[in-house]
Amino acid sequence: MGVRDDIAGARRRDPAARSAFEVWLLYSGLHAVWWYRFAHRLWRARLRLLARVVSQLARFFTGIEIHPGATIGRRLFIDHGMGVVIGETAVIGDDVMMYHGVTLGGTTANPVKRHPTVGDRVVIGAGASLLGDITVGDDSVVGAGAVVIRSAPPRSLLVGVPAAVRPQKHDYSTEFGWEI
């Protein structure tokens, strides 16, 4: 789970990425993930206040808020990430791609699992909100602006407000550089 792996993933998914150096220097979504990894280590070491300070610095510099208590898999790519919010108990699988304005939010103030679980190879469109302790299965696509309040099985297409689950009629794996 390293910087080179993240950069390679971004280059695979973003046709505008011209070089590894450009991605390393300019991609705020990756910068936010790198700051998150440091804050998460602090969180797990029970240095909670310091972890929150680091996450807020990352938010200030990137416009992306990732709680240090969240669990994030390998190669998360946040494209045009301004306004992304990932809550404390969110769980994100490997090779997830999300766009600007995405919220993985909670629906209760109780100290329980209250944020979404997102499977592997999920694409979350701009402005989508996934709310509560729900699960979005592997290889799913959440449409832009969707509000997801119920769990969805693998290979779902989620669109609308509230989001309706539809079977995928298109294989998005080739579009996003995945091998399923």
Automatic annotation (TrEMBL):
GO biological process, one term: cysteine biosynthetic process from serine
Ranges that cross the membrane: 20-38
Record's signal peptide: none
Enzyme class (EC, first level): transferase
Location, primary (coarse class): cytoplasm
EC number, as in UniProt: 2.3.1.30
Keyword terms of this UniProt record: Acyltransferase, Amino-acid biosynthesis, Cysteine biosynthesis, Cytoplasm, Membrane, Repeat, Transferase, Transmembrane, Transmembrane helix
Pathway, per record: Amino-acid biosynthesis; L-cysteine biosynthesis; L-cysteine from L-serine: step 1/2
Entry-linked CDD domains: LbH_SAT
Family annotation (Pfam families): Hexapep
Stated family: Belongs to the transferase hexapeptide repeat family.
Name this protein carries in UniProt: Serine acetyltransferase
Protein source organism: Diaminobutyricimonas aerilata
